[in-house]
Each structure stands twice: as C-alpha cells, then as structure tokens.
Amino acid sequence: METRATRSESGAAAHASGEAELLAALRRGDEAAFATLVATHGGRMLAVARRIAPSEAEDVVQEAFLSAFKAIGGFDGRSLLGTWLHRITVDAALSRERKRRSAPAESIEHFLPQFEDGHHREQPRAWHGVTNEGERRVEDREVLVRALAQLPPEYREVVLLRDVEGLESKAVAERLGISDALVRQRLHRARQALVKLIDPSMGRSE
Amino acid sequence: MTHDDNKPRRDPCRDAAMRITCEECAEFLMDYLDDRVSAEQRFVFESHIALCRDCEVYVANYQHTLDLTRELTLPEAEVEPMPEALARAILAARAHEHGARRSAPPGAGRGD
Questions:
Q1: Are residues A142 and A180 located together in one domain of the fold?
Q2: Least CB-CB distance to A47: which of B23, B79, B112?
Q3: Quick check: ipTM above 0.85?
Q4: Weakest-pLDDT range from A152-156, A180-184, A190-194
Q5: Which terminus of chain B is more exposed, N or C, with fewer CB under 10 A?
Q6: Which helix (H) or strand (E) holds A119?
C-alpha cells in the first residue's frame, strides 16, 4: 500500500524532475520555458514585491525576471528555482526602495517608547487584539501594513526580511551587508516603533 | 511601574523585579523572547513582568505586533495569478534583449 510518506516522496521527486527539466530548457533558451517560469512564479514574486516596494512592484518583478534570465546559466540548482527567484525579487525590491530614498535618513526616535526615570512615560494600554481572531485580525494586519510603510526604510527592510520572510538574523545581515548586532538593534527598534504606530488603531480591552 | 507596595520586602521575586527598570525591561525584551538570556536574567525579567502591569501590557502588545507581522508571510492560497499583461511585457523585454544581444556585432555589449 502506498503511504503518505511514499506519496510525498514521489511527489517531491516528480517536482525535482520537473524543475530539472525546466532548468535545462531555460538554459537552452527555450521560449516556452521562460513563459512557464513567469506564469509559475510571477504571482508570488509580485506579491513579495508589493510588500517591499508597493509603488514599483511590477517594475521590480520585470527587473527580477530579466536578471534571473541572464543569470540562469550560473544557477547551480542547489536551491529551488522559486527560492532563487524570491531572493532576486527581494533584492531588486530593496534596491529600488533604497534608490527612492531621496530624503536624509528618517529618524525612528519619535516612534520609540518614552521613559522617565526608568518608567514608562505613558502607561501602555492593553489591546483587544491579543487573542482576537477572524475579521478583526484581518483589520489589525491591514493596520500593521500601513504602519510598516511609515518606518524608515532601513528599519522596514529588516522587519520584512526577518519577521515576514523568516530569514535568520545572520542571513539578514549578509543580505544587507551590515552586522548581526545592527540587524538585531534595528529589528527591536522597528518592532517597538510598530507597537507605537498601531496603538491608536487597536481597540482597548476592558 | 505599578508595584504593589503591600508585598513583603524579602520576597525574592520582588527583589529580582526591582533589579531592572521598565526601560531596561523594554530594551531586553527581544533577547528575552529569542531566549538569548541566562536563567538569572530570565528570572529577573519574569519577576519584573509579574509585578509591573505597565510592562506586562507592553510585552503583550509587542508580542501581538510580532505575531501580526509574522502573519504577513504569504500563504500560497493568497497569491494571485501573474497578470497576463505583465507576463507578456516581461517576455517581450527578454525577447528584445535577447535579439539585441544576438544581432550585436562581435565584441559589442557587456559580455553577458
């Protein structure tokens, strides 16, 4: 009898074999293979780009695909094509966001909690949302997305890579060319700023 | 910090709680959540949270914010299909670049 494990293994094997065939076709310059790659991965890449560079998401995806097409000969196949494309998309989106920063570095200081003699200057208020589910939670996520857009870009990119994309902090540090300690410092400040930014929109628990 | 002053003075949790301020507690929070603290630091932190309502609320709000952020990771089901116009534009741009490279005289271009 076929078990779930063997089905899963055979599914993975079929997927790997599909990837290998697609990769070989891409390297041959097969037009249909490029169309398949775009159709298969484009939607996810667009969603990723929208989170990081919402105003230029389609340009980001086009740039990412064109970079990928040029680099396909050097792709070693050790990661999945989707993972590789995801990385290219995130890099392209972050690069666009950095170029867009015409203003001097914004300060995050006014989004951080304030203390006086070591105590909270303003008493934190309990939110309704800590245990909420469903529609209210969807609204909370929308509030958070708007707050993310208000963060200075060097803080937003750390949150996106670490908390949204789930990279380890060392991998984030490598990607951004900064130290692990700086990643952790920015991440903590960014999270604190998000707490403050979403606070007015979070209902109060009684 | 909202402490209960009726607690006995020699309560070890209270003594530990007083070893850090709310500001230090907030600074320390990410390391605590990432389990990058010693057993003693954890005890001090948790003692503080147990006695300080402000910090208890702040930690809960921080954790909730983090949970919401992590939920932004895209489930496969929420990914929309690639817009056809964008797919066509990308393939046309590739064909254009490819054609330009093929028709370029030897030695022209950037060598890619």
A1: yes
A2: B79
A3: no
A4: A152-156
A5: C
A6: strand A119-120
- The predicted-structure confidence for B37-67, as pLDDT tens digits, reads as follows 999 999 999 999 999 999 999 999 999 999 9
Domain end (from A100, A118, A150): A100
CA distances from B105 to A91, A109, B100, B102 (A): 32, 56, 10, 8
CB interface of A with B, residues 14-53, below 8 Å = 29, 31, 34-35, 38-39, 41-44, 46-48, 51
Beta strand pairing call for A115-116 and A119-120 = antiparallel
Count the neighbouring beta carbons within 10 Å of the beta carbon of residue B61.
23
pLDDT of residue B10: 61
* Structural domain count of chain A: 2
Contact indicator for B50, B13 with CB cutoff of 8 Å: yes
List of chain B residues whose C-beta atoms are within 8 Å of the C-beta of residue A165: 73
Residues in chain A: 206
User: Would an 8 Å CB–CB cutoff place B111 in contact with chain A?
Assistant: no
Single-letter amino acid code for the residue at B31 = D
pTM of the model: 0.70
CATH code for position A22? 1.10.1740.10
Asked whether the predicted pLDDT for residue A118 surpasses 60, the reply is: yes
Give CA–CA dist B49/B25, Å, rounded. 8
**Cβ contacts of B64 on chain A, cutoff 8 Å:** 127, 129-130
Please give the full DSSP string across B32-97, using - where no structure is assigned: HHTT-S-HHHHHHHHHHHHH-HHHHHHHHHHHHHHHHHHTTSPPGGGPPPPPHHHHHHHHHHHHHH
Containing structural domain, residue A31: 4-100
Same domain, yes or no, for A96 and A136? no
Instruction: Say yes or no for a CB contact (<8 Å) between A48 and B74.
Output: yes
